[in-house]
């Protein structure tokens, strides 16, 4: 017998049940994964040094039901690797794209919802996404891309500043 409980499909706590904590990770999964080596197989013989990797990271959150407390949080990572070849030219070594998601039940007041969804939830997902990206780049014939820890608070605050300038909400929450 297992001590874990499956949350109800609608995300609501049944009457008489013990209340859940403020955050419950129901499920995590790879929503999208892409790895391309446009110059294969030539890139492997011409590569003289480790490629320079440009990273882009984004976090999105959306409710799974109208007015509910269950959300999908998506951590999106893109790694573009540029390699300098023997003759001095630059070529794309690989492109890796990952969308790693979690389904979260959130029981907090509305004013705490955004930081929970855009800071704490991706913080929980990040180690798993980091491992997937490292494995796929290593399995693709390159040194593994090992992401440094991400400051999700700074990322969220930066997005808040940008959305305030544009007048758009930070999350779809």
Précis, in short:
This protein has a single domain (23-145), classed as SecB-like (Bacterial Protein-export protein SecB, Roll).
Structural summary, described in words:
This protein has 173 residues and is an alpha+beta fold. It has helices spanning 42-46, 110-139, 152-166, and strands at 23-36, 52-63, 70-84, 90-106. The protein has one domain (23-145): SecB-like (Bacterial Protein-export protein SecB, Roll). It is built from three helices and four strands; from the N terminus they run βαβββαα. The protein has a four-stranded antiparallel beta sheet with strand order 1-4-3-2. Helix 2 packs across helix 3. Mean pLDDT is 85; it is low at 1-6.
Primary descriptors:
single chain, 173 residues, alpha+beta, Bacterial Protein-export protein SecB, 3 helices, 29% helix, transport, SecB, translocation
């Amino acid at each position: 017998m297992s001590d874990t409980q499956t949350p109800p499909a609608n995300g609501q706590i049944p009457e008489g049940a013990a209340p859940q904590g403020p955050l419950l990770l129901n499920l995590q999964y790879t929503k999208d994964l892409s790895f391309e080596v446009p110059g294969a197989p030539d890139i492997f013989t011409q590569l003289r040094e480790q490629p320079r990797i440009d990273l882009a990271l984004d976090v999105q959150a959306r409710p799974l039901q109208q007015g509910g407390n269950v959300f999908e949080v998506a951590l999106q990572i893109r790694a573009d690797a540029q390699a300098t070849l023997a003759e001095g030219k630059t070529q794309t070594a690989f492109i890796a794209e990952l969308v790693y998601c979690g389904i979260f039940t959130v029981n907090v007041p509305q004013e705490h919802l955004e930081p929970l969804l855009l800071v704490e939830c991706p913080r929980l997902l990040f180690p798993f996404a980091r491992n997937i990206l490292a494995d796929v780049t290593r399995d693709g014939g390159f040194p593994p891309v090992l992401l440094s820890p991400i400051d999700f608070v700074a990322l969220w605050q930066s997005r808040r500043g940008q959305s305030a300038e544009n007048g758009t909400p930070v999350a779809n929450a």
